[in-house]
Amino acid sequence: MRLSQMLFVTLRDDPADAEIPSHKLLLRAGYIRRIGSGVYAYLPLMWRVLQKVSQIVREEMNATGAQECLLPQLQPAELWRESGRWDTYTKAEGIMFALTDRREQELALGPTHEEVITMIARDMIRSYRQLPLNLYQIQTKFRDEIRPRFGLMRGREFIMKDAYSFNADEESLKKTYQDMYQAYSNMLRRSGLSFRAVEADSGAIGGTGSTEFMVLAEAGEDEVLYTEDGQYAANVEKAVSLPADAENSPFTSYEKRETPGTETIEKLCDFLKCSPTQVVKNVLYQALYDNNTTVLVLVSIRGDQEVNEVKLQNELTKLASEYGGNAVLKLIVPDADAQKKWAAKPLPLGYVAPDIADDYIQSTKDVAPKFLRLADKTVVDLKNFVTGANESGYHVVGANWDKQFTLPENIVDIRKARPGDRAIHNPEQTLKSARGIEVGHIFQLGTKYSIAMGATYTNEQGEEKPLVMGCYGVGVSRLAQAAVEQSYDKDGIIWPVAIAPYHAIVTIPNINDAQQVEIAEQLYTELNQAGIETLLDDRNERAGVKFKDADLIGIPYRIVTGRAIANGKVEVVERKSRNSQEIHITEVVSTLKGWISQAVS
Ligand code: ATP
Ligand code: MG
Question: What is the pLDDT of residues 475-513, one digit of tens each?
């Protein structure tokens, strides 16, 4: 392709609305253009990158025996009602774009395709002989993200590869999952990314095990906790660890103390001269279930620990049926305004005890009359602890479970693991923290969708069984931008060779020099014929401008038909290392071929 004929517009300055380097660079280098919030046009250079990523993804998927298809983006609400996700996705998370057509039928723009694929499986899979099966597609997804940002990283319209497997049993699912794990590792390695596979939370999608593939980069929205022995890595949402040991309590007898102005743990511990590990902190949450029931949740956790709200939400989802619901729509720490809806009298916030009376709740038909009391594991073994006295300005010290307080029945792990915590698999290892960009997520779904939607098959014994499912996503457009986030310098993008829009760019320093032009044209033709995807900068611009642009757009090899042509040579510069060497014109094609095949192997 000739730059003189391309839509080629680069910007010298950083665009005002871009925050992270990869977003700035893709805009400046003319790869993408913002059309609206979270909505971008992929311009020709970007589209080539996306197609390269897609092709790598496709090859790795095909190698596992998965089959490509294309599912509809317009999805009938009926399907989502069958799976029970219509309300969660349109109201709770509100992430799905829903619309009503001219016949008053409700539809959604696909944020994901479990429902559609399960419908197909229900209709078409009859027998164990058809299993296992893995179908995938590469397609635009729509999600009404609360905070679209960072360009392609979190768009409202983005490209995803999603795959769905159907297996006869858990064992077969595990095998497919393992194949996907390997395929994902291959995709990311081949795309030139440095990444980590981590244990992940399964979120609203449901199911059991899941792994996220994180591209390591400072700008990542996710925190990963890992150990240096390589035995453990998890998203902080999911991570577990051993908490620090609790210190022995200095309080030997139970008493109520006046503790004015100590509504935070720090102030309390200063005042009482004790360690936060001797305090039972009681945190109030307000959960809204999908049947419109509000439940007040009191979490008792050790004073030095924080609540992991993802884990808490998962526990509340498990308890949903006790309140007649299926899912948690909203989970908040209720502020004064939220308390108005249910508080019968002002709460002694900051001084709450595990046994705060239920008559603080003004029960209505939509508000559960009792606190749901949950104890994090960290409080179970505490002796002579400090906690609130249910009266503003007062705490109790020297308290014990089974004496002054009853340990809640629901004992759960809802603490946030932190860097520096000891690892469970080996307490000599401590957790370290890194930032990551989630580019892929693989799930063992189990039978959640197949049972909800009645997708069954007949096994060898002639029994009808629900299909066991897995699902596997890769953010193709996010991955492409993540590659930039991991690889750039002050002058621009440095594409990994495997996903660069072009391998090489031939730059003519002076287009008025006939010999420069002739050699450039000849190399441009030969390189392309040899399968080396090459650009020709034949614009009537100064050499300096052309070099700057070539650096900015990040093409791996630049060939300059400058002074060296007098000796039958051209200058070849590698973008990544900036190494420059003069190579005989006749050897350019073979040299580049060698470098490229080495770089993508
Ligand atoms: P996140 O936690 O980042 O919102 P997710 O858990 O919602 O991601 P999945 O539903 O598992 O993501 O989707 C599969 C993949 O699609 C993700 O791993 C990610 O790479 C990509 N992806 C998800 N949401 C977006 C988005 N808004 N923009 C771009 N890519 C996305
Ligand atoms: Mg999301």
Answer: 999 999 999 999 999 999 999 999 999 999 999 999 999
111 lines ligand 1 (CB under 6 A): no
Identify whether residues 259 and 226 lie together within a single domain. Answer: no
**Does the beta carbon of 441 lie inside 6 Å of ligand 1?**
yes
Q: Which domain holds residue 75?
A: 3-240+433-484
- Asked, for residue 425, whether it belongs to a domain, the answer is no
Asked whether residue 22 is domain-assigned, the answer is yes
Residues linked to residue 394 through DSSP beta bridges, in sequence order:
258, 391
* CA 441/CA 218 separation, integer angstroms: 20
In a domain, 290, yes or no: yes
What is the pTM (predicted TM-score) of this model?
0.90
- 161 Ramachandran zone, left/alpha/beta (phi>0; psi -120 to 50): beta
Residue 326's pLDDT is 85
Query: Is the domain of 220 the same as that of 326?
Result: no
- Atom of ligand 1 minimally distant from the CA of 205: 10
For atom 31 of ligand 1, which residue has the closest CA?
475
CATH of the domain at 596: 3.40.50.800
Q: Compute the average pLDDT of residues 257-270.
A: 95
Instruction: Tell me: do 468 and 380 sit in the same domain.
Output: no
d(CA 63, CA 60): 5
> Is 495 a member of any domain?
no
Q: Are residues 171 and 320 in the same domain?
A: no
Give yes or no: residues 149 and 283 share one domain.
no
Non-local CB neighbours of 175 within 8 Å, separated by 6+ positions: 132, 167
Which of 224, 438, 472 maximizes ligand 1 atoms within 8 Å of its Cβ, making it the mutation to test the pocket? 438
Are 407 and 465 in a shared domain? no
Q: From residue 554, how far is each of 39, 126, 558 by CA, in Å?
A: 24, 51, 10
Of the ranges 209-213, 290-294, 557-561, which is most confident? 557-561
- Same domain assignment for residues 463 and 512: no
105 CA distance to ligand 2 middle (Å): 26
> Could you read off the pLDDT of 58-105 as tens digits, one per residue?
999 999 999 999 999 999 999 999 999 998 899 877 899 999 999 999
Partnered with residue 141 across adjacent β-strands are 158
pLDDT by residue (tens digit) across 309-324? 999 999 999 999 999 9
Minimum-distance ligand to the CA of 141?
1
Q: Is the pLDDT of residue 141 over 70?
A: yes
Residue to mutate (ligand 1; options 310, 478, 479; most atoms within 8 A of CB): 478
